Amino acid sequence: MLPSKDHRLNKEFVSPTVNKQAFEPPAVHSNLVKHLDHTAVSQRANLIMAEDTRQDKRASFSAITEHNTNGMARTSAVASSKSGASKKLVIKNFKDRPKLAENYTEDTWLKLRDAVGAIQNSTSIKYNLEELYQAVENLCSYKVSPTLYKQLRQVCEDHVQAQIKQFFLNMELTESLDNLSFLKRMNRCWQDHCRQTIMIRSIFLFLDRTYVLQNSLLPSIWDTGLELFRTHIVSDSAVQKRTVDGILEQIELERNGETVDRSLIRSLLGMLSDLQVYKDSFEERFLVETNRLYAAEGQRLTQERDVPEYLHHVAHRLEEENDRIMSYLDQSTQKPLISCVEKQLLGEHITAMLQKGLRILLDENRVAELALLYQLFSKVKGGLPTLLQFWRDYIKSFGGEIVCTPEKDKDMVQDLLDFKDKMDNVAQSCFTRSEGFINAMKEAFETFINKRPNKPAELIAKYVDSKLRAGNKEATEEELERILDKIMIIFRFIHGKDVFEAFYKKDLAKRLLVGKSASVDAEKSMLSKLKHECGAAFTSKLEGMFKDMELSKDIMIQFKQYIQNQSEPSNIELTVNILTMGYWPSYIPMEVHLPPEMVKLQEVFKLFYLGKHSGRKLQWQPTLGHAVLKAEFKEGKKELQVSLFQTLVLLMFNEGEEFSMEEIRAATGIEEEELRRTLQSLACGKARVLNKNPRGKDVEDGDRFNFNNDFKHKLFRIKINQIQMKETVEEQVSTTERVFQDRQYQIDAAVVRIMKMRKTLSHNLLVSELYNQLKFPVKPGDLKKRIESLIDRDYMERDKETPNQYHYVA
């Protein structure tokens, strides 16, 4: 047991744990240094010689201290007496340096060696630590430092060699130890060595701070201790192999879910790091084992688990390895270790994982797993580009199914909007709004939406019509505005925007003329969006339609005043919309037999209008005319809101009880197919104002119709003219044909414009120029036909020597 004073110092200088990054242990305690300084000063004070001054005992002295060049303090005392005489006190250095006592060096070294041996054997030290420190300082002061350093190194080396011999003294016992016990024994040996080295250095600190510091080639006492341990213990192949094997085994057990002693692993890896053998002895083997483990695990789990479960497993593994680095691995291992895990668990299985699971994740909208997928793939080389390609292919495939399946035409636009919302959410929430992924999505939408020419454009126009039509109670104004914004995004992807324009214009005309527009503000908002997207030329005709409706209102105010001034006012209220032919869709003229009262009113309006606007020609279009009829049933009076054709049919039943289809057709002059639709709406719909005999859903030749006097309805005004808003097959075909006809005119105009400017051009260059100028998709065969047509009409001609060359004909 150490004495109490020594025991205090022992507690100060011995540390059971070693900071693996700090090679230099703490300095000697300040009390010890202070004591040593005081001892040195007191020794020097013994050398002072004073003159006998024989002065009065009551004389006062003032001390003046000067610093001599050799570092010795020289003090002069100035004495003052009544007579005023004074003398200086001079202190001189020894002429000869004091000599050490005989055998002082040997005796002192024996004491120091005994102390070092006691530390190494963990026994009590016989001598006071301050005394030992002073002995080292004295030896160093008398140039014994080189010898002292060599002797100390030899003693330490002998002890380490003895340790390794004892370590393997009983080879059978060592080999019989399990790896964990061996690691604990190795760690104990290392901890003891560190504690001993720190204690020894605290005694020989003066040597370390003077002689060693002045000789840059000499390692410090601490570094010497590390070097000896590395050379004689850790560098032994058997010890090193057993140590590293044991550490790797513990790490593998932890990876398999077992609990291990992390502090033991941390201490041993710190030892390898301090001894500068961490990378060569441990890290290389550790990374090889890690690579092997995760390669096998990746192969097995990609087959056994579904993709979401596997992704969570990979994230968990990466979290574990990062925790391992924080707990006991060296920071230098982080990058190669994480790269190894990512490569084996992710990099080797990118394509297989995406083929197996991306479609499922996107179909089920599993946002959390998609975000994790993106996060993990962003760490792996080639991960994001591969994910981007699969994402693009998925959008093309899924969108292609929506667009190219005629059975889904009814819900195509809504499905496209929902799909776009879903993909936007994935790009924003999971793919961190990556510009590359957003651009890929736009490119994919543009590709698949134009796989089926014209139809998406037509259906988008009809979808807009359904949203802007009166009676659409699905959305508020704000929601309607959001829907229109989303539709415009889909509209941007369409190449054949002229098809959209044609169908949109046809439906807008119906909404305006039949009075079925839900909101003028919504209509103008949509018009503004189209103008912003496609330019003023695209919407000029649509804007003209709105102007016609506003002008017609002003004209009707003037016409009502004109009627009131007539001598024979009519009991029919007539409203006329004046339409500019170039703005509105073209309608097939149809001559029908109007009642005399209506014919008379038309003539009155014609006189009124042409009187104000000479040189104009009016052409009546009954197709989109509508009326309100007053009818009497057994239940009472009702008002029927009907189309002009329905009006002509119903008015016949004022003249008779029952009519055949042929009789109605002869009396009204309505075209056969239109008449079938009209009779079907009156006799087979929800509001059956007429009875059909025989009963049935379709109107056949020979069917007879009579007035349904028993008709009942909860409303006073009943709308039966919805049939006007429905598109017929003929309308759809004629609209499409009109678009194709307009395209031919645009192609002809573009060819003539190019040839007029270039005069002479080859076929390939002309086709290339046309593709640049035309805003709709067109096949090379169609272009060739239009070029042939223009050659036939003498707008251009072929070169006589080079048939592939064209010349403009002025």
Automatic annotation (TrEMBL):
Keywords assigned by UniProt, alphabetized: Biological rhythms, DNA damage, DNA repair, Host-virus interaction, Isopeptide bond, Phosphoprotein, Ubl conjugation, Ubl conjugation pathway
Domain annotation Cullin family profile: ranges: 455-683
Origin superkingdom: Eukaryota
GO-annotated cellular components: Cul4A-RING E3 ubiquitin ligase complex
Pathway: Protein modification; protein ubiquitination
A GO MF term: ubiquitin protein ligase binding
Name of one Pfam family that matches: Cullin
SMART domains: CULLIN (SM00182), Cullin_Nedd8 (SM00884)
Coiled-coil ranges (or none): none
GO biological-process terms attached to the record: cellular response to UV; DNA repair; embryonic pectoral fin morphogenesis; heart development; otic vesicle morphogenesis; proteasome-mediated ubiquitin-dependent protein catabolic process; protein ubiquitination; regulation of protein metabolic process
Family membership: Belongs to the cullin family.
Alphabetical list of PANTHER family matching this protein: CULLIN (PTHR11932)
Protein name as it appears in the record: Cullin-4A
